[in-house]
Design goal:
This protein has about 230 residues and is α/β, with parallel strands linked by helices. It is built from eight helices and ten strands. The chain binds adenosine-5'-triphosphate and magnesium ion.
């Protein structure tokens, strides 16, 4: 579905990712863990075509898309939910849904919003920027439902949210996975991502330092064993 082969990438003269290999199968959920600055966001941006790799290959949906623009990845069915939510803060919730809705089907989009996140229904006329952090993340996640992608890359969906809101967000991610959508879930806090994932990659200083099945490793082992952090 998605694969990166020996990908090296960075910004200007700085190398961030170093010979990264990563694969995500059809309908598979992959957790991508690692400390601040490890290169997680850079990896997702490279996998979505927003950053061109300096070396290596990025393949998606059976095609080599290395060096192609992000639109090519999006058209092939890849959806990146960026760090910082990626919604339009000055537009209303309704207008954000309008932008996301396939073929301009606003009624269907509002219906989906209502089913998944009923709290958003009362917020349709409100600007997205005035929503709570949790509501903003729900609105951001709706894009992964409304644009019907085959793979979704999620960057720190739970950042700054209360545990109960994180439950809601992860339930929605789980539902996407059950629909057969492939997921890459970036998290700084390992537990929830591991619970959802089939496989896990640990990134440290731009290198994959561990790859394996999610049920064969604990959050504690990742922190202490692979990252040398206090757990
Ligand atoms: N646009 C940029 N220009 C230059 N350097 C950048 C840019 N974006 C990120 N970096 C650098 O690349 C490195 C990896 O950053 P990245 O955002 O990918 O890490 P991360 O694992 O997502 O961290 P976090 O957990 O804090 O989100 C960092 O050293 C960062 O300073
Ligand atoms: Mg990041």
């Amino acid at each position: 579905m998605l694969s990166m082969h020996a990908v090296t990438a960075g910004y200007g003269g700085t190398t961030v990712l170093r010979e990264v290999d990563l694969t995500v199968g059809e309908g598979e959920v992959v957790a991508l863990l690692g400390p601040n600055g490890a290169g997680k966001t850079t990896l997702l941006r490279t996998a979505a075509g927003l950053l061109r790799p300096r070396a290596g290959r990025v393949e998606f949906a059976g095609r080599d898309l290395t060096g192609r623009p992000a639109q090519s990845f999006a058209r092939a069915g890849l959806c990146l939910l960026p760090e910082g939510r990626g919604i339009f803060p000055s537009l209303t919730v309704r207008e954000n849904l309008m932008v996301q809705a396939r073929g301009g089907r606003l009624d269907a989009a509002i219906e989906t919003a209502h089913e998944l996140f009923p709290v958003l229904t009362a917020r349709l006329p409100q600007t997205a920027g005035s929503l709570s952090g949790g509501e903003q993340q729900m609105l951001a996640l709706l894009r992964a439902y409304l644009t019907e992608p085959s793979a979704v890359l999620v960057d720190e969906a739970s950042l700054g949210l209360a545990p109960i809101v994180v439950d809601t967000i992860y339930a929605a991610l789980g539902q996407l996975a059950r629909r057969g959508v492939s997921l890459v879930v970036v998290e700084q806090y390992a537990q929830r991502a591991l619970a959802l994932a089939d496989r896990v990659y640990v990134l440290s200083q731009g290198r994959v330092v561990h790859a394996g099945r999610a049920d064969e490793v604990s959050a504690d082992e990742i922190y202490r064993g692979y990252l040398g952090l206090p757990s």
